[in-house]
Design goal:
By secondary structure, the protein is of the alpha+beta class. The protein has five helices and six strands. The strands form two sheets. Strands 4-3-5-6 form a four-stranded mixed sheet, with helices on both faces. Strand 3, helix 2 and strand 4 form a beta-alpha-beta unit. It is globular and about 35 Å long. The two termini are 25 Å apart.
Length: 177
Amino acid sequence: MKIIQLLLAAVAGLAAPLAWSCSPLLDHKFTSLQGQPVNLCAYANRPILVVNTASKCGYTGQFEKLEALNTSYEKRGLVVLGFPSNDFNQELATNREIANFCRLTYAIEFPMIEQGAVTGAKASPFFKQLASAAGEAPQWNFHKYLIAPDGKTVYGFRSAVEPDSPEIMKRLKPMLK
């Protein structure tokens, strides 16, 4: 990718080559619930709201507000990413069941990643990095991490904090285009 950008810069006669950077935090690849590849580097330079989800949790109603945030702010740069997990024993058995539940119950359009671990020794490297950067690992479903466009700054929000809460919005709004 960088070679192509350098060539394009040279052809265009630009004085300095285009810079491509992906922070180590975003340098992860996943598969969506629908089996499509998801490269977090594609979301570099944008605010990203990461949420560990579960279909049978008391906080599952937050899907509505997550989708509303996605719809309202996607054109201004926001990316909402859902990471289903059964770490707290409240997720459906298969990725297909989770995908159907999210689509049929909440009309979820934002990317949902295949089910995986978000806490403890089995947590994905991405969630380990998020926990380290924010100073807290998920204690329950619907823990939220807001990653700033710099790809380094991470804010953590516990499950009870609603996606459209003043705590999240005061951090998110200055990051939007």
